[in-house]
Amino acid sequence: MLHLAASKRLREMTLAVDLAFAASVTTVVGPSGAGKTTLLRLAAGLVRPDAGTIRLGERTLDDTARRVHMPPGERNISLVFQEYALFPHLSVAQNVAYGLAARHIRRAERQRRVSAMLERLDIAELAMERPARLSGGQRQRVALARALVLEPSALLLDEPLAALDVQTRTSVRAELREVLTNLAIPTVLVTHDYADALVFRERIVILVGGKVAQDGSHADLLAHPHTRFVADFTGVNFFEGLLDTHEPDRLARVALPGSVEIFVPAEGLVAGPIGLGLRPWDITLSTMPPSSSARNVLRGRVREVLPLGGRVRVMLAVGPECALSLVAEITPDAQASLDCREGQELYAAFKATALSVGPTERGDTLGRSDAEVEPAGSRD
Fold this sequence. Notes:
The chain is of the alpha+beta class. The chain is built from nine helices and 21 strands. The strands form four sheets. It has a six-stranded mixed sheet, with helices on both faces. It has a five-stranded antiparallel sheet with strand order 2-1-4-5-6, covered by helices on one side. Strand 18 (311-318) and strand 19 form a beta hairpin. It is elongated.
């Protein structure tokens, strides 16, 4: 277990976290300047916390109250940098052996461990190549091999996919998952791209302004985004409104900006400010008012149509004033059927049960707990 309960003052903010990382992969994701790299540097010992403790298993790495700071070289934590930091004048095998040589491991043992690691990561045939002759994915594997050959107690990766082109990233994401999920040590991967985080969806920590905005699985973040930022970051619609009246059919009316009214299940809710999440794929689009059982039907105008591989994201301005933004996801076949295009008028329909209830932007706790809200399905 790697546990950081520490703070560090940065130029424009303070990074303050209390995070425990088990022997699995955790993705820390957030915008530039959120404090992601500083988090890794704290764990690696490259910077000292201003307050708090950092522990790895039974060992105390930092304790500001006791003035304890273990040097980076004694922590047995491997950090893979964004640009991989390979030595251009050394071969792949020499790069991987570098840390072992620095630890004065005997030559025969170094060769054995390097050969085994190159085989494990399927780059044995590249042993004599120089980094300049390698692809982006191959350089990443070499950097991982150099980190893992040291048999670290924890592994940290700083934007490991950022240096790759768009075409390469998709395949390398899958390769990275294959390597990292087989490790039995705390592994922390930071990225600014939520698509990278989806590869390790079991636990995602969203860091914003030096604070943890939300911590949970991908499914949890989709079902219950706590803030508009989390919703936007994960691709979920998030609305803040005022829960007004309870309807006879066990629904509650919510007033949203732009003179928009929608309905949610009333059980467990109280009147007042409310935050609502709605997944784009729970929305059905049509050119005519739908005849389905969906309780919420909003008329809107298409602002943008964005193809995303096997799905199409449609941004609409909905409501009487076209002032509320709504994002729907449909299949390419559905787009073709609708002849979906910018400026087109469409109807967006979704069930009341598709809306999840969470805190408002102010962090207020609402009348219904997460445990009482049933997600309206799930999506990988």
